[in-house]
User: Which sequence fits this backbone?
């Protein structure tokens, strides 16, 4: 699990890289984010090795 709740910006390259990191380790990375934008972007990119949890 990676707490990204204080990040103001995460681009698609960062999400792809995080998913690749998880894939190399045969794991699923859980990214906790403060906004729904990160979750929507991850869904559009269809990254099976990355799950985003939106916290409020």
Assistant:
């Amino acid at each position: 699990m990676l707490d990204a709740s204080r990040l103001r910006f995460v681009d698609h390259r960062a999400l792809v890289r995080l998913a690749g990191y998880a894939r190399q380790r045969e794991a699923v990375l859980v990214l906790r984010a403060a906004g729904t934008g990160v979750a929507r972007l991850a869904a559009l990119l269809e990254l099976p090795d990355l799950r985003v949890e939106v916290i409020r």
